[in-house]
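ERR on first pass: missing label on line 2. Operator R.T. fixed the label and resubmitted. Corrected input:
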Amino acid sequence: MKEFKSWKDYPIGGIISEPGSTLELDVSGWRNERPQIDQEKCIRCRICWIFCPDAAIIEEEKPYTTKTGKSYRLTYSVDYVHCKGCGICAQECPAKAIQMIPEV
Amino acid sequence: MTAVIERRKEMKALSTNKAVAEAVKDSDVDVVAAYPITPQTTVVERIAELIGEGQLEAEIIHVESEHSALSAVIGASAVGARVFTATASQGLALMHEVLHITSGLRLPVVMSVAMRSLSAPISIFNDHSDVMNQRDSGWIMIFASTAQEAYDSIIQAYRIAENPEVLLPVMVTYDGYLMSHTIEPVEVLGKYVSEEYIPKKQTWNVLDPDKPITMGTITSPDYYYEFKYSQAVALEGSLPHIIKADEDFRKLYGRGYGVVDSYRLEDAEIAVLATSSYYINLKYAVDEVRKRGIKAGAIKLRVYRPFPREQLYSMIKGLSALGVIDRSVSFGMTPSGPIALDIMSSYRYRDAPPVQSFIAGLGQRRMLIEDFVKIFEILEKRAATNSISEKSIFYGVKGVEL
Ligand code: SF4
Ligand code: SF4
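pass 2 clean. output:
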């Protein structure tokens, strides 16, 4: 996103002329707690991906094998630039694989 | 030699409400939304008739409240339509939050207000409590004194609002009943004004699928302040454009009003300032008190926001006292008249005459020419005895000694 140095650079009426600028918005500063996914416990059910209001859960085509030998094709991780720390993912995860860790 | 343009002027007998509707037609407005509220209702009723008669090609959006009326015209303005809405009293109060959104989005919305008192107790009659409550909402505010001026001001309002150097909403206000429902001769210009004086051109940011933009976004503390500053600069900077729009109008159609007006002020020692229709009777009162040897003058404030600071100062600086008639109360403040307060604070570091604030006509309490004469006499006496009071004089309240 373009940096506005002076009030004169700001668009009239506060419009956003580049669609999709939300992608560039860093909301990490809003977080008090961050979600952390335990890949061992995660059963790849995709519920966190569905529930996250900020599309901050990333579904990656990245194989993972647990210590008990279970193999998954996918790995779920968190995009910490767009995660605002609401905790919905942790609340909804049926495997209790997501923990909210305080930001320090 | 330039060709003389044949202008289709026509005289009509119109109430100010009907004159406003006529101006909306002549401005070739595209979208109108309003909710009926006394004493504004006949404005939109007449617009609906004009559309029905095929005299205006516009959409009327039926809404369930004034909050929605202004929201609807914001939406229409955001896609590039020329829009209009009208309201009064509680309806304007209900629009309050949307007024700020309109000016914040910098959309050239034009609205008329048939000024009326606020509840409680309920009064459908005139005063200025409704508009004075909106003076910090970032709108340009014009007070019209006659039906003719209201007609002309609506047309000027589009010129001002859509000026790319301005891009702010404009409110044209006039006295409910005293003007909204009384008939005066009005010279109408016909629809060609919209080609000649206010040709349609999208000068503001609009929503267009081919050039997508986002409007009405959330802003973080890192950005909000600059937007508000640019809004303040835009409103302050709109004054010369308002003056220019009026001058251009005068050149084309022979009528202009200025941002402030005065009557017999040249040799005046004291003067009284009023707005809207009061100015007319105030001028008669000037003639009356001058017969009694008081060197009086009258001043009319036409543009209230932006405040015409220098123009007004040049009129009042030589006076020995200035009376200001407000028709609303800034409760809990001394003086209690908003315009008096604005004048006093504007010139606090300059050599300006003492200001005596008067409150009058609340809820359309009758004010005759003789009442304005009395106001001049009170002012003259107070000026002569150095007893201008910091408090407002609530003229005409039963049981209050003057
Ligand atoms: S904490 Fe909220 S925003 Fe962050 S990943 Fe979980 S659901 Fe999404
Ligand atoms: S909800 Fe829990 S178990 Fe399901 S994919 Fe997300 S982290 Fe894994």
